Amino acid sequence: MLCNKVLNTGYGCFQWLLLMSCGAVYAVCALSTTTLSFVLPAAKCDFHLSSSDKGRLTATPLIGMCVGSYFWGNLADARGRRKAIIGALLLDALAAFVSSLVQSFPAFLACRFFSGFGIIGATGLIFPYFGDFLSLRHRDVMLCRLEVFWTFGTILLPGIAWLIIQDPRLNITAEGADFQYTSWRVFVAACGIPSLLVVLLLLPFPESPRYLLHMNKAEQALQVLQRIFVVNTKLTEKDFPVESMISAYDGEEAEVVAADNNGNETKSPLTWNQRWNAFWNRKKMLVTPPYIGLLVLCCFVDFGLMFSYYTLMMWFPDLFERFSQFSSLSPGVSAGVCEVSANVTRDELLGKNECPQAIDDTVYIHTLVVALSCVPTALSVGLSINMVGKKLMLVMMLISSGLAALGLNLVRSSLQNLLLSCVFEAIVSCTEAVLFCVICEIFPTKVAATAMAVTVTCGRVGAIVGNVVFGALVDQHCVVPIYMFGALLITSGLLCIILPKSTRPERPQ
């Protein structure tokens, strides 16, 4: 099997270099995904955005992600994972640059659709690409380390936004000109540059050896493994213990056979008709008990999780900005999130808040603090998940994050709002990763990938619905979506109690 041949290549410098490069890609994915969180308050005046418009704006890239995930998955199967990741990053960069130039809100929405369409390709493929270079022994730990880079991306965002959006010198065009290129547009374009830079980091690395074997390119796969062996061991290619490789198909996955100079082991591949039948047999397995029930439960959990997490993550800077405006207009007055939102909206209707408005520095600081609060959780989850147990950790994280979401109705100041936002974000930011670990445990290998894809799609749909609902209700009825966040998370946590520990045998170490 391929994992055995990866073991022969050794574990060391190559995997760590690839971790740094793939981690940089994943950090850029976080940066691109959350760019609009600072566009909401910054572009409000230029596009005359209502809260409903803001909800549509944050939902549009997610629609692109739902469409793009299928496209990039098929492209990766046809042309290779590395090429698909590079293509996705280039499209994201192009969409960022073009969106910074367009002058109308509908055109900006279209560009952000393609940004989401592109970045989901890199987000969804970077984990399997990296995992193909790891043995089973090191895969879980290294993939958990890769997850930490997402947090680094969210930490970089407020710093980049503060440096660019707050700088009046970057308002390149004059106020009132027909063509506007203000500082927030420079920020949008700047967020596309890292997508180009990480492409350069991926260029020195080879295509996934597993993909090469599936494409019957055994000789190229062998060359990749020899290259990894040389980097890790500092020996020569001649010292690599595998001299030739062939790929075969057993109805589920490629099998790799090593052979020496005395002869080769062979295994006849199945016909296309047999492969097609095997494919549908695996899909039918997923929609029969007990797996159909587990799939529905996982989809519900990820729907509620992303309904809450992605929505609040995108709206935190806007909520912090509303607290800042309220404090400047009503100094010393205590108020909750919903009261602040209602008062700021009323003041805008009465013309008390004039355009253009500079975003207060505290918005950037608070957003950075929220992002930093995720670091301890991101580092500790990978270390403690096996000790605590995936299922128990998932239940605890969902229920505690639900309680934190409900607590947003109780805060009475900007500081209280910041502290509770940090608690919520620190817990919920790693919850989906734990859910993915659970999915890998409760579904058989041959249907786990499909179960994961369906679950992720339901999560993105939840994020779309959450942003639209929050945008429609935040001004006058924001208590409703906050209660929805808490109820969905707590209900998901309670339902996860019935999940089995595993339906699969223990994997080899």
Automatic annotation (TrEMBL):
Transmembrane segments: 16-43, 55-72, 84-101, 107-130, 142-164, 184-205, 291-312, 363-385, 392-412, 418-439, 451-474, 480-499
Domain of life: Eukaryota
Gene3D superfamilies given in the database record: MFS general substrate transporter like domains
Location relative to the cell: Membrane
Residue ranges occupied by any Major facilitator superfamily (MFS) profile domain in the UniProt entry: 18-504
GO cellular component: membrane
Chief location bin: membrane
GO molecular function: transmembrane transporter activity
Membrane topology: Multi-pass membrane protein
UniProt keyword list: Membrane, Transmembrane, Transmembrane helix, Transport
Similarity comment text for this entry: Belongs to the major facilitator superfamily.
Protein name: Major facilitator superfamily (MFS) profile domain-containing protein
Organism placement in taxonomy: Eukaryota, Metazoa, Ecdysozoa, Arthropoda, Hexapoda
